[in-house]
Design goal:
The structure holds two protein chains of two kinds. Chain A is mostly beta strands. Chain A is built from no helices and eleven strands. By secondary structure, chain B is an all-beta fold. In chain B, strands 2, 4, 5, 9, 10 and 11 form a six-stranded mixed sheet that branches. A five-stranded antiparallel sheet of chain B has the order 1-3-8-7-6, with no helix packed on it. The chains are: A mainly beta, B mainly beta.
Amino acid sequence: EAQVTQNPRYLITVTGKKLTVTCSQNMNHEYMSWYRQDPGLGLRQIYYSMNVEVTDKGDVPEGYKVSRKEKRNFPLILESPSPNQTSLYFCASRIGGANVLTFGAGSRLTVL
Amino acid sequence: DQQVKQNSPSLSVQEGRISILNCDYTNSMFDYFLWYKKYPAEGPTFLISISSIKDKNEDGRFTVFLNKSAKHLSLHIVPSQPGDSAVYFCAASSSTSGSARQLTFGSGTQLTVLP
C-alpha cells in the first residue's frame, strides 16, 4: 500500500530533550515536506526537500532541523524542544512536479 | 499575513442538504487550488482540485467553484452525508515557484453533518 509513515504517533517529552520524528514513504517520491497544524493557523510548512541532499526552509523553520540522506526518509529533528513546539506534525510527499501531496497520519507532540 | 483564509471555523448542515465551504486568497499568483479533508487521528487526504483556467470542477457529490476576480473559491457537497463530517482545508499553489510548488493552506473549516 502506498503510504507515508510517521513515528512516533504520540510523544510527550520535556523541554530540552532532543527528539526525532521519523518519516518514510514507499512511493519513490522526490518531494517531501513537514507541516505543523495549530488551532486557527491551519497547516504551516516547516521544511521541505526537493530530492536527496536538497532541503530548504518553509514558513516556520525555527527550532527544527531536517535531513534527506535517502529518497524514502525525511526525519524531523528537534534539537532542544520548547513548549511552543507542542503541536500536531504531518509529513507529506509527492512526485516532483505534481500538486497533490500525500500525508502521513500525523505525530502529536507535547513538550512540557 | 495569511494568504489563504477560511473565515468560518465551523459549519453544521442537515443530512441530505448542501454544504458550502468557502475560501478566500490574496496572492494573485496562485493558479492551482485544492481541497483536503481530514478526519480525527488521520492525515489530510486530497479531495478535489481546480486550475485557474477553469471556473468549475466536479467529482461526484463534490464541486469546486473558482471566482478569480473575487479571489474566492468554494466547495459544494450535495447531498451531504454524516460521513462527510471532517475538517476541510483549502490550499493554493503558484506555478511561478517552479517544481517547488509549495502549498499554502487555510486554517480549516469543521463540517458537521447532522443525521
